[in-house]
């Protein structure tokens, strides 16, 4: 871990740190990733239960259509959509598309607006 | 320490991200309600089983790199850092083992 001979620069005066739109999209990418990680063990257990027998399948189906689950699903669907969109944005930047400041700001804004909108759409589409 | 190698982690993160994107796009047309026997036949079948295993494999590899980056950024004390990384590794390996066991059980029962 300590391969750096010098101390890395650290700037953690929270009140002074500015959060431009790209930083908000970036921190949301991290937050959504952590949320998805927290959900992962639950998903693995649900997968196992749904494959076990008929009753398990029915209980998982009932659980994921209960009102409480819809709220949890809403947060997780947002996390998934934001993570995927922000991830695609990063992959495009990797191959040299949209790295300029103005376009990067525009795409960050697009991701931040599109993710909740798409999440709401997917949620209602899934419920209907 | 190889475990903290940056370039390999970068490549693993990108390849797993692309794999997850492709799998998600492939899965979208099939996102319709199933009954139990169709679901287990799919997950226990020669196509569905490996695809779900691949999905969770890519997911765990991707999650490992991402969470590792976050831990290395925000947690400086070495002991705490190692403890959190170990916890994450245990959770991800547990998820992977659990999914593989579920898929194997489904394959055996069909």
TrEMBL record, chain B:
GO MF term set: electron transfer activity; heme binding; metal ion binding
Membrane topology: Multi-pass membrane protein
Localization: Cell inner membrane
Keyword Cell membrane assigned: yes
Listed InterPro entries: SQR/QFR_C/D, Succ_DH_anchor, SuccDH_FuR_B_TM-su
Keyword flag Ligase: no
A GO cellular component annotation in the UniProt record: plasma membrane
Pathway listed: Carbohydrate metabolism; tricarboxylic acid cycle
Keyword terms of this UniProt record: Cell inner membrane, Cell membrane, Electron transport, Heme, Iron, Membrane, Metal-binding, Transmembrane, Transmembrane helix, Transport, Tricarboxylic acid cycle
Cofactor: heme
SUPFAM superfamilies per UniProt: Fumarate reductase respiratory complex transmembrane subunits (SSF81343)
Cross-referenced Gene3D superfamilies: Fumarate reductase/succinate dehydrogenase, transmembrane subunit (1.20.1300.10)
Record-annotated membrane-spanning stretches: 41-67, 79-108
GO biological process: cytochrome complex assembly; tricarboxylic acid cycle
Described function: Membrane-anchoring subunit of succinate dehydrogenase (SDH).
PANTHER family in UniProt: SUCCINATE DEHYDROGENASE HYDROPHOBIC MEMBRANE ANCHOR SUBUNIT (PTHR38689:SF1)
Protein name (database record): Succinate dehydrogenase hydrophobic membrane anchor subunit
Organism whose genome encodes this protein: Thauera phenylacetica B4P
């Amino acid at each position: 871990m300590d391969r750096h001979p010098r101390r890395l620069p650290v700037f953690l005066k929270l009140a002074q740190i500015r959060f431009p739109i790209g930083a908000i999209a970036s921190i949301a990418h991290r937050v959504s990733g952590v949320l998805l990680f927290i959900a992962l063990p639950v998903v693995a257990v649900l997968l196992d239960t749904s494959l076990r027998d008929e009753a398990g399948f029915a209980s998982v189906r009932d659980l994921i259509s209960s009102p409480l689950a819809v709220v949890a699903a809403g947060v997780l669907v947002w996390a998934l959509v934001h993570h995927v969109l922000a991830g695609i944005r990063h992959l495009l930047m990797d191959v040299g598309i949209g790295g300029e400041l103005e376009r990067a700001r525009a795409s960050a804004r697009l991701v931040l607006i599109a993710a909740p909108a798409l999440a709401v759409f997917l949620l209602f589409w899934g419920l209907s | 320490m190889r475990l903290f190698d940056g370039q390999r982690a970068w490549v693993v993160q990108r390849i797993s991200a692309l794999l997850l994107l492709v799998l998600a796009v492939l899965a979208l047309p099939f996102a319709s309600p199933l009954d139990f026997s169709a679901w287990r036949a799919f997950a226990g079948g020669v196509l569905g089983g490996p695809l779900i295993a691949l999905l969770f494999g890519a997911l765990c590899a991707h999650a490992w790199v991402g969470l590792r980056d976050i831990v290395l950024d925000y947690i400086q004390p070495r002991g705490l850092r190692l403890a959190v990384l170990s916890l994450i590794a245990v959770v991800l390996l547990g998820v992977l083992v659990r999914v593989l066991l579920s898929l194997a059980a489904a394959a055996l029962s069909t």
